[in-house]
Amino acid sequence: MNISTGNKIGFLCFIVILSMWGYVVAHIIGIFDLRSIKDEKHHVYSLNIANELRQSSDDLTRMARTYVVTGNEIYKEYYFDIIAIRNGDSPRPKKYPPTYWYTSLTPERFALDKLDIQVPLKNLMRDMGFTESELLLLQQSQARSDNLMNIEKQAFALMKGSYNDGKGTFTPKGVPDNAFAIKLLFSPQYQQEKIAIMQPIQKFIAAVENRLIIEADEFQTKQKKYLWYVILLLVISTLMALIITFYVRNKIVLPIFSLVHDAQSIAEGDYQARSKVSVENEIGSLSKNLNKMANHIERDINKLKQMATTDELVGIANRRAFMKSLQLELERSHRYQVPLCLLMLDVDYFKVFNDTYGHSIGDDVLKLICKVSQLVLRENDLMGRIGGEEFAFILPATNIDFALIVAERIRAAVDDAFLIIDGKKIKVTVSMGATQLTNEDDVGLFLKRADMAMYKSKDNGRNQTHYF
Ligand SMILES: Nc1nc2c(ncn2[C@@H]2O[C@H](COP(=O)(O)OP(=O)(O)OP(=O)(O)O)[C@@H](O)[C@H]2O)c(=O)[nH]1
C-alpha cells in the first residue's frame, strides 16, 4: 500500500473513530436519560408504595365504618381483604394504586385483577430501598394501626352481638348493637388513634420524598460531571488526532511526496534538480543525502562532458568538439552571410624535435604553443587540437585579411616563445594556413582548403603563413 492510499485510509479511520466517539457519547447520554427515567419511575413507585400504607389505613376505616352503618357483609370482606393484601396473606391485585378501593369495589373485578404473588407491603418497601429510619416510622404506624384494628374488630363483634371475653376472643353473648358499633368507630378515641397512625406515615412520606429529591440531585450532579468528562475526553482525543494528522501530513506525507517528485526529476536526467525538503527527521536527512547524491552526479557528469570535449594534454577543445563547433559556425555563417575563417597550424619538424629532446618535452612545446596562441585570439575565437601536432582555429565574423593578420600573429608568437632546457633556449616554429568560407563549402571542403594553405607554407620553407 502506498503512502497516498495509507493517508486516505488514515483519514477515513479518523472519521470512523470520531463517529464512534460521537456514538459512545450519544449512547452515554442515552444511558443517563434511561437511568433518570428509571429513577423517576422508581421514585414514583416508592411514593406510591408509601402512599399505599396511608391509603390502606384510610380504606380500612372506610370499609369498617360502611360495614357498621350499612350492615353489608361485603364491606367487612373488603376490610379483611385489605389487611390480607397489606400483610401479604393474599395475592395483590394487578393494579393496586392507592385509589384501588375507590374504583374496584366489585368482587368480580377484584378476582380478575389478582396477581399470583403474596408479598407483605413492608417487604415491598424494603425492596424499594427504604432506609431503616424510614421503615422504623412505618413500624410505629403499623403498631398503632393494630390498636385501631382492635377497636374496629370490637365494632364488628358488636354487629354480631359478640363481646370481647377479655382473652382476645369474641363470643356471642347478646343481641347485635349496631348503634354502639357506629358510635365506637366515630368516637373521639377512634379519631385520636387514627391521627396517631397517620402522623408517622406523614413523616415517612416526607422523609422518602426528601431522600428521593436528594438522590435525584446527587445523580444529576454526577451525570453532569461524567458528561463533562466524556466531552473533555472527546475534545482532547479530537485535538490529539488533529495534531497527529497535521504532523503526519506536514512532516511525513508532504515531504515524501516532494522527495518522490525531486528524485523522479533527477532520475529523468535533470541533474540540477534539488530537494527543498527541510524537516528535522529521517526524511530530512534523506533529502540532504539525495541532494548530496545529485551534487556528485552533476559534478561527475560535467567532468565526463568536459573529458569528452577537451583534449587531455593541452586542455583545449578536442577534435570532436572542434568539429561540432565548426559545423555550427559554418551553418550560422551561411544563414546570416557573415564571414568565417579557418586557420590551420602544424608544428615544423616536430618528429626531429621529439627525437632530439624527447616526447615529454615535445608535450611541453605543444602546451606552450596553445598558451601563446590563445593570447592572440579574441573571446569568440576557438582553438582546437585536431591532430597530434596539428591545431586549428575558428575565427567567426572575420574576413581573410584579418584572419591572415591573426595567423601571422600566432606564428610570430610561437616563433618568439621558447623553453629553457638544461640552460639552453629551445623553440619550434609553426606553419600556418588560412582560408575563408565560401557558400559552396561544407566542413570537409573548408578544412581541406585550410590544410592546403598550411601545406603551401610547409612547401615554401615553413614558419610562414599562406591562404587559399
Ligand atoms: N611530443 C609529442 N609528439 C607528438 C604528439 N602527437 C604527434 N607527435 C609527433 O609529431 C610528429 C609529427 O611528425 P611528422 O608528421 O612527420 O611531421 P614533422 O616531423 O613535424 O614534419 P613536418 O610537419 O613536415 O614539418 C611525430 O613524430 C609524432 O610522434 C604529441 O602529443 N606529443
The end-to-end distance, rounded to whole angstroms, is 73 Å
Low-confidence stretches: none
Oligomer state equals single chain
Tell me the radius of gyration: 62 Å
Give the CA-based shape.
rod-shaped
**Secondary structure category:** alpha+beta
Strand residue percentage: 5-15%
> In total, how many beta strands?
9
Q: Counting H and I runs of at least 4 residues, what is the number of helices?
A: 14
The main β sheet shows up as: 5 strands, mixed
Bound molecules: guanosine-5'-triphosphate
Binned, the helix content reads 55-70%
Mean pLDDT: 87
The helix-strand sequence is HHHHHHEEHHHHEHHEEHEEEHE
What is the count of structural domains? 3
The strand line-up of the biggest sheet is: 4-5-3-8-9
Transmembrane segments: 9-32, 226-248
Protein name: diguanylate cyclase
Organism: Colwellia hornerae
Keywords: Membrane, Transmembrane, Transmembrane helix
